[in-house]
Amino acid sequence: MAPSTRSLVMQETDEEDWFAEDDAPPTAVAPATEFDHIERLLRPLTRGDPAALDLLDDAAVLPSRPGYDLVITKDAMVAGVHFLPDEALDVVARKLLRTNLSDLAAKAAEPYGYFLAVGWPSGADVASRETFARGLAEDGAAFDISLLGGDTVTTSGPLVVSATLLGWAPQGGAILRRGAKPGDRLMVSGTIGDGWLGLLAQWGEVMDADGAMLRRYRQPEPRVTLRDAMRIHAKAAADVSDGLLADSSHIAKASGCRVRVDLERLPLSPGAQAWLDQQPEQVEGRISLASGGDDYEIVCAVDPNEAWNFRVAAAAAGVKVSEIGEFVEGEGVSAYYRGRDVTPSRLGWLHG
């Protein structure tokens, strides 16, 4: 995240520029509630991390970690685009952190902390801020990450939230998208399609009797526990955010080879399987599940001699991984079903 030109202290004004208390010119008067907002809602999110400097300074001071690289990722979400305008704000906060944590998981990085930016609509009340902060606190504790700094502003538009997460990977050991070779196996964690079906359930377009698919969409589970297994066995990886087919193709492109996905071997949850059983065309149904996105699983390339060991190591970390294809000579992505080549009608989400 590009820091503000003035500060990384969490503050907000109705003006375009904002200042730390000790930087404010004599004519600038901070809103009466602003420092209370920082102290009461945001400072607890630092969880006492000394790097955050209690959110009293214009920047965070990060420690070095000998033998490790600092891995940085950033995501932004806009109301009405990435979540419904009436979504609970604690859910929004948690999903913001979890989507970024998924990016760190794909790099086999150990999460450390985050910077936050929020553009609050001008009518946002204190209760909204409290709810948002509560979600951050819950997942900050769950994933052992601390707020290190950031910025808040007021906007005439919709709510905009952005987080920049930091993590540590052994020096030179972050798992990149490039690294797959022809002959490597394509493997994926968890199940595929639940996030997309959860979005449809939120729109009322599919049945979700127990709410499992909606939970997967609203609160994805970043595969941070796969870190050690991936460091040993994965050669290239990505998280499944745009869609399994699309994200597999990203690995193939970065690695200079082609990936073939076996649609028959997609790992499906009971809910996704029940939905698929109702579809008139199995292949198209499977393509929909493999291109829907929002699963936040890890898809990776593994040497065929390491595939079994990766399964065992992943299971020890509480995650099931499945072999769903292979990398071959060529470029792009292709799919097949029961031995028959299939041309996917779509791969996943495209970013504008």
UniProtKB/TrEMBL annotation:
Mg(2+) 3 binds at residues 58, 103, 239. Coiled coil: none annotated. Substrate binds at residues 82, 294, 349. Mg(2+) 5 binds at residue 242. GO terms for molecular function: ATP binding; magnesium ion binding; thiamine-phosphate kinase activity. Residues 57-168 form the PurM-like N-terminal domain. It holds the Pfam family AIRS. Its EC number is 2.7.4.16. Mg(2+) 4 binds at residues 58, 73, 103. It catalyses: thiamine phosphate + ATP = thiamine diphosphate + ADP. GO terms for biological process: thiamine biosynthetic process; thiamine diphosphate biosynthetic process. InterPro entries: PurM-like_C_dom (IPR010918), PurM-like_C_sf (IPR036676), PurM-like_N (IPR016188), PurM-like_N_sf (IPR036921), ThiL-like (IPR006283). ATP binds at residues 150-151, 177, 241. The keyword ATP-binding applies. Mg(2+) 2 binds at residues 75, 103. Pathway: Cofactor biosynthesis; thiamine diphosphate biosynthesis; thiamine diphosphate from thiamine phosphate: step 1/1. Keywords: ATP-binding, Kinase, Magnesium, Metal-binding, Nucleotide-binding, Thiamine biosynthesis, Transferase. It is an enzyme of class 2 (transferase). The keyword Phosphoprotein does not apply. Mg(2+) 1 binds at residues 75, 151. Belongs to the thiamine-monophosphate kinase family. Reaction mechanism of ThiL seems to utilize a direct, inline transfer of the gamma-phosphate of ATP to TMP rather than a phosphorylated enzyme intermediate. Catalyzes the ATP-dependent phosphorylation of thiamine-monophosphate (TMP) to form thiamine-pyrophosphate (TPP), the active form of vitamin B1. This is Thiamine-monophosphate kinase. It comes from Caulobacter vibrioides OR37.
